[in-house]
Amino acid sequence: MGNVESNGSYQQHLSRFPPNEQADIEVVFGSLSKMEVAAAAKGVTLETIKGHVKGALPESMVVRLFDGMTSVQLSEKSPGSSGRVTKEQFVVFMSAILKGNAEEKKGIVMRMICKAGGTVKGSQILEFAEDLVNSVIHLLIYRKELKGWNLKNMQNSTAGVKALASQLTSELKTADGRRLEGFAALDACYDEGGLEDWLFRVPQVSSFLGVIVQQGLLPPDQGPSSPSSSHLLPACKGLRPGSSRFVSLLDVPSVAFLNSCLPSGLRREWRLLFSSQLHGESFSQLCGHIVHKGPCLLVLRDAHGYVFGGFASCSWEVKPQFQGNNECFLFSVSPTLGVFTYTGYNDHYMYLNHGQQTMPNGLGMGGQHEYFGLWVDSNYGKGHSKAKPRCTTYNSPQLSAKENFTFNAMEVWAVGEPPGDPDGKDPKSILDADPEAQALLEMIGKSRQSEGLRVPDEDGDNNNSE
Hints:
Layout: E1 4-5, H1 10-14, H2 19-34, H3 46-53, H4 59-70, E2 72-73, H5 87-99, H6 102-113, E3 120-121, H7 122-142, H8 157-169, H9 182-187, E4 189-190, H10 192-201, H11 203-216, E5 235-237, H12 252-261, E6 269-275, H13 276-279, H14 283-290, E7 296-302, E8 307-312, E9 319-323, E10 329-334, E11 338-341, E12 350-353, E13 362-368, E14 371-377, E15 382-384, E16 404-415, H15 435-443, H16 447-450
Parallel strand pairs: 1-2, 5-6
Antiparallel strand pairs: 3-4, 6-16, 7-8, 7-16, 8-10, 9-12, 10-11, 12-13, 13-14, 14-15, 15-16
Helix pairs in contact: 3-4, 4-6, 6-10, 7-8, 7-11, 8-12, 14-15
């Protein structure tokens, strides 16, 4: 097999790391070498790396990492002995994966997909993507970095791993720029140029690789986690410990994927605002829990098991006009994972209304009245997803199994920091304890009057007095 030539000398690759990171690399490779003192000068073997990683990564991913390391061809000297990784190869590999661009990564990723290199089939890339996603989920659990997400309160990740891997590989393009589907995509061949294009356009692949390399190779007793995985999952808030009644419609892979699609400033934390399991099946309850609560994700499951929803980039308001901006999007979680963004055709991003005789009553995103990309009727439990062939606002297909659907579960997650005043103190109101009453007042046009029903704060001042 051919080797991957490094761009620049070993010292150039090493200099890309600041002194503290150089020290970390020395420690890691030193730990590997100590396990094979007699052969340290010749490099370390696959079995040595397996023994070092222990349970942090699945064995299949350790083999892929090793194949990527041994594929490195140093420009100033020949590669190490067959079946061993030299310190120089190790440093160049770390440099390419953690600091390099798509061009630098492509050869190494090619060998991680298939040791023989050359070209790879779509089916091999899909298998690699599944291994990649599964390894990240495994690592997050192993390193205890779920950030408040309890696996008992989430869907099993097995199907989600496959769905996210399929979503990542759906972005592959052939040499002539086509995207294939189904068996044609799995049977197509891709060269290093195709992989470079894929790595450039799908940043999650490089992000996942970085987490695996940076945290998977750290000693099991390493201290605080590196920031490499801090952005993968948001902190989970708003769910009381021991709330066994609640089981989210999402799994770890879908949370990670949806979070990566949010504006960067909203990825730090998610807060559960509403769940039909916890708060009941009521449109007024839904409104009461989501109005004026900042950007949020709505997730539904229809009667046929399809899971889908939308991201609202602004606080919901009850009014008979469209609202929001072009950061909104619709998405599908199951049976396929995908995000559908603004087309520029119209500004029908978000709509929430109730109690009107002349305007539709319910919650909608995209499309137009009576023909939304996603619609939840005020007669709670019913909705529609109309897209023939695509939603005009988001270019989304029909999200539900049937155009007019019934749904059996719904949840809403606020994303980013909670809205509030600059001092972080929200005025207290007798209505705050009853969000349903607050929403009902707004529905009948009494929101301004209700603002006068504020109680004094703790130091005796009324922040809303005129």
